[in-house]
DNA sequence: TATTACATATTTGTATACAAAATACAATAC
DNA sequence: GTATTGTATTTTGTATACAAATATGTAATA
């Protein structure tokens, strides 16, 4: 049966979901025939979807042995944070140069529901956080930059819920970034977002070191 | 017939070459059957190679209509330079932190043949240049960073030969970058490589503006 | 002559078949 | 009991067949 728009697309989305919710576990081997049957498709479009996921660092292929759900070790997670510093730093810079009120508004809207609240729902904040960071990239209107920013997928793989640090710490940081963008200060915007990402990175590094020494 | 290591690998390399040397032209539609026959393989491994190229921005897929050799417009080229500023900037920073004499040596070796020469061979220098920039990334030993740096392919698509500016201008800049890395000055290393990339970018922008007004 | 409608040819997307490699497992030797 | 070999099974990589969609060409009409 042939549908109008390419089967590999929905398969890709479905697989991503399955990886996210743990239906497919870290390090697990993907037995193509099995997954294909489960999804009710053949191996051909499944392969297409898997290759797309491989390029997003979610799946790892070992020639002649199979495809595996990628499991990130600590070094790789830190390395990804370094990449994020570079990419998001540049994004903040670009947005500050644009200095568009519309952009600033969109960014502010992400966190509007959390301002001066007694209680912040972690899940809602985690979503807002993820949304903010990918929005930042998207608003640059730089397609190649968007293309290389596929780490948001991995983001909540690092921690259970998707947050490394509590909202009390990060909410203010987010607004420092937005304010620098609003002020049209590229260097400051870049600096603030790097600080923001770097703090989470350092926290992770410390956690890993503690794990090790135990 | 089945070979030991996956047919799509050599196909991928071959296609990249064909794009590079113009055997496959910008915007050209890839008729899978034709290319497959030409390369003596079936569509299946060809598709795998094409999907890999799509993820590197070299091929563009339009569902149900086919795959095309991507043609970059001026905005995209500029956007790629912005990405390079971000990625290579971070790479230089990381290397400056590492402060390894071995790394410094490798980087210096790239341009050693060109120091205080009366005549510099453009092709040789272009190769050294490309090598230097990808080496910079590779030496960080940051796999995700490496993964998102696939613009070197596109590099010489921008100009005919792969150089935007003459060696007289860039040789010194390259050594400014290397010296900052050697000195263990991350901020300076990042600044210098950004300047370096930015100058080429600005030149391209000016050229495009001239083209337009003519 | 330009435009639409239809028939035909191409080409993509998908499923499937099959060969070769990898893996699992049992039987044998040590 | 462990190691080793040989055999059966599973799984990947590739080719191929076929259906559905798109592109092409031709004739009929305005």
Walkthrough of the structure:
The structure is a homodimer of 214-residue chains. A three-stranded antiparallel β-sheet of chain A has the order 1-3-2. The longest helix of chain A is centred in the last third of the chain and has 28 residues, at 186-213. Chain A has helices at 8-20, 32-39, 43-54, 74-98, 101-111, 122-138, 143-148, 152-158, 167-182, 186-213, and strands at residues 29-30, 59-62, 66-69. Chain A has two domains: 8-69, Winged helix-like DNA-binding domain superfamily/Winged helix DNA-binding domain (Arc Repressor Mutant, subunit A, Orthogonal Bundle), CATH 1.10.10.10; 74-213, GntR ligand-binding domain-like (Four Helix Bundle (Hemerythrin (Met), subunit A), Up-down Bundle), CATH 1.20.120. Chain A has ten helices and three strands; from the N terminus they run H-E-H-H-E-E-H-H-H-H-H-H-H. Chain A is globular and about 55 Å long. Chain A is mostly helical. In chain A, helix 4 (74-98) runs antiparallel to helix 10 and helix 5 runs antiparallel to helix 9. At the A-B interface, helix 3, helix 4 and helix 7 of A face helix 3, helix 4 and helix 7 of B. The first copy, chain A, binds a DNA duplex (30 and 30 nucleotides) through helix 3.
Q: What's the structural blueprint in terms of helices and strands?
A:
2 copies of one chain form a homodimer.
Chain A (H helix, E strand, L loop, with lengths): L7 H13 L8 E2 L1 H8 L3 H12 L4 E4 L3 E4 L4 H25 L2 H11 L10 H17 L4 H6 L3 H7 L8 H16 L3 H28 L1
Antiparallel strand pairs in A: 1-3, 2-3
The first copy, chain A, binds a DNA duplex (30 and 30 nucleotides) through α3.
